[in-house]
């Protein structure tokens, strides 16, 4: 039973080659093919822009321009289908160039139709046609099928990669993906921007050798030890200091978590870091209120670390998140306002 027809655009300046491919594919009973033909570079661009093809076959020789130039142009324009490059015998350098330009596959045209071309022109033999078909048709059909399947798989991976990036790069945390040896596979955009690095500067380096860690020898050693512990299966977490892109010291909550495969072996490490500088600074202010506070017994001013006497409410406000309000305690109220009704029957009097 045939499924939906596979739409193919063949770009070749030789109509005989188009007819050959049409004849070959017509022999396949399980799949229906809907073929179109463009005879030159410009008409190919028009058909590609207006059409919606499942796969393209580009001949290398197209007059003044060639199929690789066409391939590069349509790929740059966002082509969303695989291209198979048709080349001549012994053109290995062209095959390599085509794959580098984005071709899904390449086919040597002599392998597809050499028997048919000779027998059809010299004898017109139907038997000769069948000999050719048995050799060229499976090769062409397989190339088309594999190209479409690989392209669909590639698009699925690319979509998955985009979803991963959307999550990976938008998080507020500094996140990295490492191999079990501590080599950076990825750092998210948050981390790269914060440290003023490009992706190429980070990927491939050992995490403890990155500039913002290596600048502190103790931190580098501690990070290397953390990677080794995580690679052995442990979850590691500690506070660390790092320099941001402006050279300012920041405090981070740093962790490395192992990722295991189905057999339990550690194959990846996830590093995460949160900037806790504001929290540390706030905590430091709160801690500065601990210990002995020298307070004047008469005016209640507090002596600060610079030997300056400050109003107690100002002192507290500068060193904590507390908001100071002024009131009066019961003892002072009794002393200052003894005639108030609320204190006349006070049992303490």
UniProtKB/TrEMBL annotation:
Pfam families per the UniProt record, alphabetical: PAS_9, Response_reg
GO BP term (any one): phosphorelay signal transduction system
Signal peptide: none
Keywords carried by this UniProt record: Phosphoprotein
PAC domain ranges (all copies): 236-288
SUPFAM superfamilies in UniProt: CheY-like, PYP-like sensor domain (PAS domain)
Residue ranges occupied by any Response regulatory domain in the UniProt entry: 7-124
Keyword Hydrolase: no
Domain PAS: 160-234
Keyword Calcium recorded: no
Xref: NCBIfam families: sensory_box
Name listed for the protein in its UniProt record: Diguanylate cyclase/phosphodiesterase (GGDEF & EAL domains) with PAS/PAC sensor(S)
Organism expressing this protein natively: hydrothermal vent metagenome
Taxonomic lineage from the root: unclassified sequences, metagenomes, ecological metagenomes
């Amino acid at each position: 039973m045939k499924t939906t027809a596979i739409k193919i655009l063949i770009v070749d300046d030789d109509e005989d080659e188009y007819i050959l491919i049409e004849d070959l594919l017509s022999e396949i009973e399980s799949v229906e093919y809907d073929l179109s033909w463009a005879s030159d570079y410009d008409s190919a661009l028009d058909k590609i822009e207006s059409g919606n093809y499942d796969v393209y076959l580009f001949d290398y020789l197209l007059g003044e321009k060639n199929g690789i130039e066409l391939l590069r142009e349509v790929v740059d324009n966002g082509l969303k289908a695989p291209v198979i490059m048709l080349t001549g015998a012994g053109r290995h350098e062209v095959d390599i160039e085509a794959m580098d330009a984005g071709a899904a596959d390449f086919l040597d045209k002599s392998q597809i139709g050499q028997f048919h071309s000779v027998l059809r022109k010299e004898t017109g033999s139907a038997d000769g046609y069948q000999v050719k078909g048995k050799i060229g048709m499976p090769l062409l059909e397989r190339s088309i099928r594999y190209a479409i399947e690989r392209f669909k798989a590639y698009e699925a991976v690319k979509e998955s990669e985009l979803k991963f990036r959307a999550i990976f790069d938008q998080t507020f945390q500094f996140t990295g993906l490492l191999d079990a040896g501590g080599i950076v596979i990825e750092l998210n955009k948050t981390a790269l921007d914060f440290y003023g690095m490009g992706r190429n500067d980070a990927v491939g380096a050992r995490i403890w050798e990155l500039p913002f860690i290596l600048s502190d020898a103790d931190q580098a050693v501690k990070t290397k030890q953390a990677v080794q512990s995580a690679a052995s299966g442990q979850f590691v977490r500690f506070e660390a200091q790092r320099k941001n892109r402006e050279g300012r010291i920041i405090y981070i909550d740093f962790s490395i978590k192992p990722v295991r495969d189905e057999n339990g072996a550690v194959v990846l490490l996830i590093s995460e870091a949160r900037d806790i500088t504001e929290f540390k600074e706030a905590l430091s202010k709160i801690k500065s209120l601990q210990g002995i506070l020298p307070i004047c017994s008469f005016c209640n001013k507090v002596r600060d670390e610079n030997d300056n006497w400050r109003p107690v409410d100002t002192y507290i406000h500068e060193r904590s998140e507390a908001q100071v309000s002024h009131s009066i305690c019961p003892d002072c109220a009794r002393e200052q306002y003894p005639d108030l009704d609320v204190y006349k029957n006070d049992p303490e009097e």
